[in-house]
């Protein structure tokens, strides 16, 4: 069977056209983090809007599933093409709303990632498997039906694509609730994809945490994908208990990096810096606490200072900016509190730590804190911002114990001139992913997910497709 899809008239390929298509004349104000001024208003969807979206999704999903993998994949490739045509406009909107720079690992990279994840989901196969020939047993993976997706504000469009691309690929209909701080970027993505997807297959509903809570208790959803804080993840587990939807929970992290004594500090400083400061530190799997062996400690701190002091910070939409503002004033306050606590408890501020609290926008300077106590709040709490604590260690076992000592386990990294030695250490670190000589890079075919308080379930690759499907075993 075929389904009608609408075609683009090009209006979503400019920033003005995109914003006009998704913003509301009244509704929830969305702030520009670089100025504190209102950027635009997002529609405020209600539980009644959620019910209407559920009805539309229920009506559309069976035909979407019946299209089959090949046709759905072809439509996802068309969707990626549409994202590419609107990439410049989408990137500008992300920079204005979320704050990240256009360049480097910024909003143009984010828009490109959305396209890449759609294309990879389209190209990934999940065939039926024969488990046993005699007695015969097979397993197939079928659509769940309706998938609900709730997202954070740090990589709004990219993380939305991580949720919707595999879910659509497997034949589900998707209803998304973006963060109240960055609804426009996800509404824009929904509008762009709406040019090629059948009506009702994907709906983006902007709303606050109450709308998120309504989604997690709605009986329509067979699967809920959540990316956000550990506290909200726990609330979703409790709220969803009556309906028992399947859950993927990508929660907070506090990723350690362990630097072994054999490194060349100057050679690793750039990668260490960007591992920690990507998106101005607002990244789930960023390097958030660094443990450096005493033999190279001073040299690593100095090499990091040399890199960090050269990185320009400014509004995301200025081409020269490499770091932007924090997305929310609340996040600014968290970073400010943790750095002041570190200073008061004897940490040495090597760089930064001196924000202009009266200036417009949520700009907190890149900050390095050395000689900090291993149990200071800046080390053991997730800062989610541009302030890196650097802890000195003498004994590797002690460093590994500190790395494993928290109740989260998203990512981690080990840095060494000897890759085999680094892998041996990596095997002892409790995290969903341990990188060697880099931190935080994700790939659409490499499964990603946390352990402990960082959540459960995997995204990306074949594992990611299985996570938005239900298994169907035929035995006999
Ligand atoms: P958050 O938990 O405050 O909000 C995330 C989303 O949940 C928002 O859309 C919000 O409206 C919604 N929400 C809030 N309360 C809810 C409830 N009771 N029921 C349903 N939905 C609810 O998180 P945030 O501040 O937007 O994001 C920052 C956090 O996300 C950090 O801890 C970061 O580490 C984590 N994060 C994790 C990953 C990952 O892949 N593991 C990726 C990005 C961010």
UniProtKB/TrEMBL annotation:
* Entry keyword Chloroplast: no
The alphabetized UniProt keywords are: Oxidoreductase
The active site annotation covers 250
Q: Is Oxidoreductase set as a keyword in this record? A: yes
- Superkingdom, taxonomy of origin: Bacteria
Q: Which Pfam families match?
A: Aldedh
- The residue stretches assigned to a coiled coil in this entry are none
- Ranges for domain Aldehyde dehydrogenase come to 26-468
Q: Where is the secretion signal located?
A: none
* Family, per entry: Belongs to the aldehyde dehydrogenase family.
Q: What is this protein called?
A: Aldehyde dehydrogenase family protein
